[in-house]
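seq as requested:
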Amino acid sequence: MSKALVFAAYGGPETQELVERPAPAPGPGELAIEVKAAGVNPADWKIRAGQMGSHWSLPAPMGREASGAVTAVGAEVENFAVGDMVLGLAAKGQGTFAKHTVLDAAQTVQKPEELSFADAAALPVAGATAYDVTHQIELEPGQTMLILGAGGGVGLMAAQIGNVHKFTVIGVASAAKQELVESTGATFVASGEGAADRVRAIAPEGVDVLIDLVGGQALRDLAVVAKDPSVIISTADPTTVQQLGGVAVVRTREGLEKVTGVAQYGLVDPQVTDRYSLDRAAEAIAMVEAGHTAGKVIIEP
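struct tokens:
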């Protein structure tokens, strides 16, 4: 038997429960793994709350990304074998807040020995997103990249990637995250009222790309600092960014492999700041849902 965190109905954290179940078997194009670490993302609680549609079969397993050891290989899967150490995204209908789960082989890569399981588990969602969003618009060294929501898992890795490429990176986040944002080499700007003016003081001619990880009014307030609306890219609010003249992030299959290589050589630190056991998974999700995390939260079964 195995354990997994599920939500039994759409709503608040009271719908979550840890259940016992048989370890799932992989189907075609899938890999079964023993989970060593799983990353927690805002999408996890948003799915549970029904903010991302209501098409999950209930009870629905929670968690989207994990690292672990391959225990079984499904049909039509090549380049993976039992015993391989991997990181990847959950297969359809599966969740990673579990002792055992099933990954989508097409969205899974080998884990480099240099990466810990915790760091590896932070890459399939946040890392790959950071890679894709920072490469969607070509910038030259010295050009300005503004990141709204720079203190979270995606933002911190995006800032580091920008620094690797020698972009001028400005990170907007809450005051409590100033030290963390500055540790990436970014210039910190406090979020909230007047943030656009504070950015203008640093980049009076505007920014060459605005990466939005927050959405809503915060995005609307900062959109004015973009040199052109078309250079605004959002991972959080496709409706608002399109209204403003920008675009949603385009996810690629190469993003995970690329960011894993970048992390392997120490150019990006996933900034894992908090670790919880599976029995305390609800606490990990609550921390992310409250928006008070500084860096990446990991569950280690």
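Residues 6 and 61 are 4 Å apart (CA to CA).
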